[in-house]
Design brief:
Layout (H helix, E strand, L loop, with lengths): L4 E4 L9 H8 L5 H10 L3 E2 L15 E4 L7 H5 L9 H6 L2 E4 L3 E6 L15 H4 L12 E2 L8 E7 L2 H12 L4 E8 L7 E5 L2 E3 L8 E3 L10 E10 L3 E8 L6 H10 L7 H4 L16 E9 L6 E5 L4 H10 L3 H9 L5 H4 L1
Parallel strand pairs: 7-14
Antiparallel strand pairs: 1-3, 2-3, 4-5, 5-7, 6-7, 8-13, 8-14, 9-12, 10-11, 12-13, 14-15
């Protein structure tokens, strides 16, 4: 039956109830209708019936019924709006494709998934990367809309499941590059600061809170690669957990050094005056290392920098080649994956 949609549970949604996941990831689906579809078995988890309070695992596949069964979606306008350049746009993002695994270099101006009025997103473009068997890639994880870099997908159900497990069990090593302002006092270290979603007027933000019952463990390694005096630094971040906005919150609220261009968590402090720099968030998912889901080999995927971020590094006198040499020798999760 045409119109069936399948969404993979991301690492950050591991352990979430099905009904709450639907409310968050499929906001155009009314809660009452979602419950009805779950009871009827129209919404399935890994091909099986589920309960509204079923706890989800990263990598599981949620099957949603066809759009014609959900007319409310037509009213919200929150689905992907097709454009004539969609095929070329998504194909230019591909930096790795072996048939089973697909890696994209996501720009910093497009969301990973839809919802909340988002009209263009990576998930809606993946149909243009179907293989000859008609297999459409599915997202394994997500990046913030403003974050650029490596975004991993897979075509087969087995590859999706195994890659999801690698992220859930923290066998995937992710190295992010960022420019922070000002430069941190420490040269390197590990940030251990639990995160929880804020409430009220700031409900779209995450905050550090060690006491809240809903707080989740959040750990991030960091290493200063180069400094521009005290005003800014080129930093590698390696998250050990995958919480929403984790690196951005840890940089701003724990290190006291927000990422350049991060208006949400840094405000006016996340700027460098007097320089011709891009106002975008300077956070880039540079490298992803993990075991191939269907082979014995390791995947080591690197995403080229955007022109905007490359210009900023050059302006501040930072050397990406040197940064690659430093971070290539720092892969703390690889031994656990072997």
């Amino acid at each position: 039956m045409s119109g069936i949609r399948t969404i993979s549970v991301s690492e950050e949604d591991d352990g979430q109830r099905l009904d709450r996941w639907l409310k968050k990831r499929v906001p155009e689906l009314p809660y009452a209708l979602a419950q009805k579809l779950i009871r009827k078995g129209a919404i399935r988890v890994d091909g099986k019936k589920a309960q509204t309070d079923s706890r989800l695992l990263a990598g599981q596949e949620i099957r949603l019924p066809p759009l014609e069964d959900r007319p409310e979606r037509q009213k919200t306008g929150s689905g992907h709006v097709a454009r004539t350049n969609d095929p070329d746009y998504i194909r230019k993002m591909v930096i790795y494709d072996d048939g089973d695994v697909v890696a994209l270099n996501k720009p910093g101006d497009i969301a990973s998934q839809g919802g909340g009025g988002v009209e263009r997103h990576i998930d809606g473009l993946l149909e243009h990367l179907q293989d000859k068997k008609g297999r459409r890639p599915r997202l394994i994880h997500r990046l913030d809309r403003e974050t650029s870099g490596v975004l991993l997908c897979a075509r087969s159900s087995e590859a999706v499941r195994r890659l999801g497990a690698s992220f859930r069990d923290r066998y995937a090593q992710k190295i992010y590059w960022a420019v922070v302002v000002p430069a941190p006092d420490e040269q390197e270290g590990t940030i251990n600061a639990p995160l929880v979603k804020a409430t009220g007027a700031q409900k779209d933000r995450m905050v550090v809170d060690e006491e809240h019952e809903d707080s989740k463990i959040a750990m991030t390694d960091f290493m200063v690669l180069e400094r521009a005096g005290k005003k800014a630094a080129f930093v590698a971040f390696m998250p050990r957990t995958g919480r929403t906005h984790q690196i951005r919150v840890h940089a701003a609220d724990v290190l006291g050094c927000p990422i350049l261009g991060d208006a949400k968590y840094g405000g006016s402090k996340a700027r460098l005056t007097g320089l011709d720099l891009s106002p975008r968030l300077h956070l880039h998912a540079r490298c992803l290392v993990l075991r191939h889901p269907l082979k014995k080999e390791m995947l080591d995927i690197t995403a080229p920098l955007s022109l905007e971020m490359a210009k900023t590094l050059k302006t501040l006198g930072f050397d990406p080649v040197l940064a690659d040499e430093i971070t290539a020798g720092y892969k703390p999760f690889i031994d656990r994956a072997n």
